[in-house]
Design brief:
Blueprint: E1 6-8, H1 13-17, H2 26-29, E2 38-40, H3 44-56, H4 85-94, H5 105-117, H6 121-124, H7 134-139
Antiparallel strand pairs: 1-2
Length: 143
């Protein structure tokens, strides 16, 4: 399914007055309004989820409490989140500055599902026999 998540961006009014700019992705917070400007929200919600994940795991949100500005931060400035390693990687993937490098919401949801409900061997197995099989993925509904 190909969905279009673009919105014409002709005024700052909605962005400034009705939203929390600390959890806007870089491409949203740096957009300049104009007659021909469109903003793609395709990967902005996953970015916001990555920012909020800090709070979910009991950390300070680096954009509201940590002093980072979503418009100018560098990925190397992000503090380490206190969470399991797979979640750390997931959050880092969600907070990529460039939307094309950022994880999708669907991919992130699948990783969270595997982490919560998938067999533990999927996360810590290292031998060929312990690797994930397609039939197992189908059985657990992660396709």
């Amino acid at each position: 399914m190909n969905r279009v998540h673009d919105l014409k961006f002709t005024s700052l009014y909605l962005i400034v007055y009705f939203s929390n700019h600390f959890i806007h992705s870089p491409e949203i917070s740096t957009a300049t309004p104009g007659s021909w400007t469109k903003i793609s929200y395709t990967k902005s919600d996953p970015w916001s989820a990555g920012a909020i994940a800090y709070e979910i795991f009991g950390n300070n949100n680096p954009f509201t409490n940590g002093g980072l500005d979503p418009r100018t931060y560098e990925e190397s400035q992000l503090p380490q989140i206190e969470a399991p390693p797979i979640i750390k990687s997931l959050v880092n993937g969600l907070l990529k500055r460039k939307p094309r490098e950022r994880l999708s919401a669907e991919f992130a949801a699948n990783i969270c599902g595997i982490f919560c409900w998938g067999p533990s061997v999927w996360l810590n197995g290292s031998t060929a026999a312990e690797r994930v099989q397609d039939s197992e993925v189908s059985r657990f509904g992660f396709i």
